[in-house]
Design the sequence.
């Protein structure tokens, strides 16, 4: 009797200890909400045969994630956000325009130490960026600016700090390969190499 009771207590203790890990088991999913800054790399290419060096500004917006676990600790994540807004400057000329963009990104990512209070993650995936509401000002005022949509690779790294059994604070960074062809009044002037680092913090809840 005592042996059976001891085994039952041990089984319950092991089950309780494993609860945080269950949030990242096959078939589970997580939802996250946070804020991230998209920070384009310094030096964004040049237009008109290299005579117009670009400088694209950064932007902060709310972000949303959903991740479905296809195996223990291995998930497919979708990143979404409210539209980011970027000013476009030409060095030596000043602000010449602005644009908004949405960068939905799908990543395959692995979570390390999923049962612990601190759980790092690494992921690789594909980014699609669509640009819209392009505006012109300054030297380009009155012209029509167009930025083509972009497909490119993405890399994701982060750390989850567990809050109880189902919640976590996530601090992460994501690099995206974003290059867009730039046209003014229908004439292509060159390619803007944005290639940003997006970093921020989010609350993630497992279900």
Sequence:
């Amino acid at each position: 009797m005592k042996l059976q009771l001891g085994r039952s207590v041990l089984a319950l203790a092991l089950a309780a200890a494993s609860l945080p890990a269950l949030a990242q088991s096959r078939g589970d999913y997580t939802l996250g909400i946070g804020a991230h800054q998209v920070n384009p790399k310094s030096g964004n290419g040049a237009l008109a045969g290299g005579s117009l060096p670009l400088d694209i500004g950064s932007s902060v917006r709310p972000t949303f994630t959903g991740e479905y676990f296809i195996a223990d600790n291995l998930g497919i994540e979708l990143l979404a956000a409210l539209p980011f807004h970027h000013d476009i400057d030409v060095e030596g000329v000043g602000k010449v325009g602005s644009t908004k963009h949405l960068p939905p990104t799908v990543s395959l990512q692995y979570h390390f130490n999923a049962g612990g209070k601190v759980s790092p993650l690494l992921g690789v995936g594909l980014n699609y960026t669509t640009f819209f509401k392009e505006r012109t000002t300054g030297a380009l005022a009155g012209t029509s600016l167009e930025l083509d949509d972009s497909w490119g690779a993405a890399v994701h790294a982060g750390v989850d700090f567990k809050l109880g059994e189902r919640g976590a604070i996530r601090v992460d960074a994501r690099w995206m390969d974003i290059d867009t062809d730039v046209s003014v009044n229908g004439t292509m002037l060159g390619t803007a190499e944005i290639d940003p680092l997006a970093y921020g913090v989010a609350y993630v809840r497992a279900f």
The helical segments are 2-17, 19-22.
